[in-house]
Every structure is written in structure tokens, then in C-alpha cells.
Amino acid sequence: MEKTTKGTLYVLIAMMLFSTGGLFIKLINANAFTITFGRAIIAGLIFLPMIQWKKIKISKYYVGLVVSYCYLCMMFVLTTKITTAANAIILQCTAPLWLYLFYVVKGKKITKRDLIPRLFILLGIILILSAADGGNPWGDLLALTNGIAYAAVQYLLDKDYPISDASIVGLNNLWLSLIILLTISSQLDFTGISVYGWLGLVFLGVFQIGIAYLFLSGGVRLISPLKASILSLAEPILNPIFVFFFVGETPSFLSLIGFAIILMGIGLTMVPPKTHLSEINE
């Protein structure tokens, strides 16, 4: 199997595993914080042997990464519980809009090519938030803030760290588990989880975060980041599809239009300039 085909397959497998999050979060009979903790501690333990303890150095970027990652994970589970899975994932995927605005504030020149896709994303957000049925207004707003957190994670992951990617994901999940234990341990309740619920938690920790991350990191090394980001659009598409078929949750018609517009905007942000097309295809 050639390198490009193998990398594409790896990223698609990762996106398929990531997209099962909405389904299992809906099915597990536990509150959002219990699921978040259970998933994180399992993922942290899976990556524990890979952590390069002697190379760990605390920096402002790494602290920011831990904070944004913890918020991202907690809010994704919470918003998936209180609004539709489709709204939760698609509003989280508005990260390109917030990242763009961040660079504009830092002095990036606004161009027509950059602005138009972000306007599509903004229009989609407005439609979803104005939908009268299907979702939960507070859940949708929290999911929107999760898009900001996702943008922060993307920005901070681009920084240089002395430890490996596997170390980062292991440590981030251990930090998340510790933060939950220290702040909201009273909210943790595993007593009502069925055997199937425990199996779901194990799946989320081992496959939906752990194995998925290994496939993603391996795939990105084999294909260009642009191609990987385009393939990542499979997650916000597959997530609500899984929930629809197995749980029966259906977004409102207005939300579906908003999803389509946001996906179009995200796709447009990933189209390279014509001058770079030949470089990307190499």
C-alpha cells in the first residue's frame, strides 16, 4: 500500500472512531462529568507507558494547551448530553472562524479569500442558534464556546514541545482526570452505570481517544496536513449520523441547513491557493 493511500486510510479510521463519541455519550447512563472522567482516566492510563517524564517542561503554551484541552473535553461531553449531538459537534468545528479572528486581531490582513468562508461559518452559526426546535439554546452556546477552545488547542498544538505527541495526549488526559477529582469529584457517580455503560466508557477511552489518536498522528505523518484536515470533515458528518440511526435523535430542519453552510465554509477554508496546488499534490 502506497504512503498516501495508507495515510488517508489512517486518518479516516481516526475520524470514524472520533465520531462515535456522540453516540456512546448519549447511550451511557451517567452525567457528563462522570463520562468525561472515565474516558480521560482510561485514555491517560493507555498512554501512561509512553510518557517521557524526564523531558517534561512547563511553559505558558503548555499550560494554555492543558486548560483549553480540558475545557474542550468537558464541554463536548456536556453539550452532547444537553443539546443534539449534531449541534455539539458542528458548533465545535467552527474553530477555523475563531482562529482566523485571532490572527486578524494580531494584525493579519483581511482578504476576500479568507473572509468569505468565515462568513459562511458565521451564517451557519446564526441559523443553528436561531432554530426553535431540535437543540437546547444553552447547550448550543456552550458548544459554540467549545469551538473557541478547539481553536486554542489547534493553535497551541502547533508550538514546539520537548515531549512526543503520545506524551502530550497521555498527560493531558491525566491532568483532566486530576482537575475533575480536585474540583467536582462530588459530581462523579458510577453507581448507575450498567455493564454496557462500562463497556462504552472503555470504548471511549481506548478507541475513541487512544487508538484514534494513534491513527491520526500516524496518518498526518504520511499525508499533508491540508489533506488530513479535509478528511477530518468526516467527523462532524458521521457523528450525528451514528446518533440518528442508533438513538433516533434528529436535528431540526433549520439546524441541518446551518450544518451544511458551516461545512461549506470549513471546506472553503481548506482550499489552497492555485499557486500551491502543484506543491500539495506532490
TrEMBL record:
The chain crosses the membrane at residues 7-25, 31-49, 61-79, 85-103, 115-132, 169-188, 194-216. It comes from the Bacteria. Signal peptide: none annotated. The keyword Membrane applies. It holds the Pfam family EamA. Keywords: Membrane, Transmembrane, Transmembrane helix. Residues 6-129, 138-270 form the EamA domain. Belongs to the EamA transporter family. This is DMT family transporter. It comes from Acetobacterium wieringae.
